[in-house]
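Researcher: Let's do a round of design. I'm pasting the structure tokens now; please hold your answer until I've finished.
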């Protein structure tokens, strides 16, 4: 069965004034239930990670500042949310959700988090709505606990996974692959193990061609025993921040291809949602829902 990490905390901990586009954390599960893609049985409620479990990824100083609301105004501005205790805790639930998804994926093939993909979080600071780096935290724990020995991060959000790239710069056991808008945030890119920057207005055909030329080869070369997939839907042409010109269908084909590759090669895949900022929320929900629909279709 497709296990999905979801907790009421995901939706209620968001600060006033940030309901949109964060409303998606509330609407997406409703949509998936309504259309029958999933039932309540698919959900599991993660606990919070404790700080000790995040020390491979984040500095003790940063974790301390988060817990005690000691971030400077500038640090808070960089994250982009007003910081509250609830928001910090939300990040711990989400990160545990991603870690648990990886464990579920090992038995079920795939598992998905209805949040996460917070790839702009660095070891010592957050950026771009990202507080903790869930893929990095989960990867470090899987390696430390000898559950996995080689991890591939496939980041297809329109923004470069700069935090993830930096965190794993010198870690041979984690291969970071980011395909993103070359002109998009962050202006100053970090170096992933493989970066593909695509031009503004990139359409389905080119994006999918690059992906299809790259991913099977990467899997072959790296032989990962776990894949983390960041399925941001800010690649859509309707996205306010995205700069690309992908259609809903192209975005769905992207998800299908990634999940099929994982399935075909028998590599567990844990999926986090990432960004999505279309003006009309129905596009965001439909595109994210497609990732779940594809997982159901391919794996179950
Ligand atoms: Zn993004």
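Researcher: That's everything. Go ahead.
Model: Designed sequence:
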């Amino acid at each position: 069965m497709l296990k999905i990490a979801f907790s009421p905390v995901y939706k209620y901990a968001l600060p006033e004034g940030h309901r949109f586009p964060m409303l998606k954390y509330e609407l997406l599960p409703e949509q998936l239930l309504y259309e029958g893609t999933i039932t309540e049985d698919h959900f599991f409620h993660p606990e919070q990670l404790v700080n000790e479990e995040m020390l491979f990824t984040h500095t003790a100083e940063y974790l301390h500042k988060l817990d005690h609301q000691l971030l400077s105004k500038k640090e808070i501005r960089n994250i982009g949310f007003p910081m509250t205790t609830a928001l910090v805790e939300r990040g711990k639930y989400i990160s545990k959700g991603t870690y648990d998804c990886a464990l579920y994926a090992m038995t079920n093939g795939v598992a998905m988090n209805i949040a996460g993909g917070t790839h702009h979080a660095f070891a010592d600071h957050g950026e771009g709505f990202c507080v903790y780096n869930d893929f990095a935290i989960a990867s470090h724990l899987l390696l430390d606990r000898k559950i996995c020995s080689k991890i591939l991060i496939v980041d297809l959000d329109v923004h470069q996974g700069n935090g993830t790239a930096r965190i794993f710069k010198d870690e041979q056991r984690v291969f970071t692959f980011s395909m993103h808008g070359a002109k998009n945030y962050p202006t100053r890119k970090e170096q992933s193990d493989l970066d593909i920057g695509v031009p503004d207005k990139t359409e389905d055909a080119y994006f999918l061609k690059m992906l299809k030329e790259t991913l099977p080869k990467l899997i072959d070369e790296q032989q990962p025993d776990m894949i983390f997939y960041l399925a941001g839907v800010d690649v859509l042409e309707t996205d306010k921040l995205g700069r690309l010109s992908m259609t809903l269908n192209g975005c769905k084909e992207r998800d299908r291809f990634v999940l099929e590759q994982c399935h075909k090669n028998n590599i567990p895949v844990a999926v986090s949602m990432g960004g999505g900022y279309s003006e009309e929320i129905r596009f965001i929900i439909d595109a994210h829902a497609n990732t779940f629909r594809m997982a159901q279709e391919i794996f179950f």
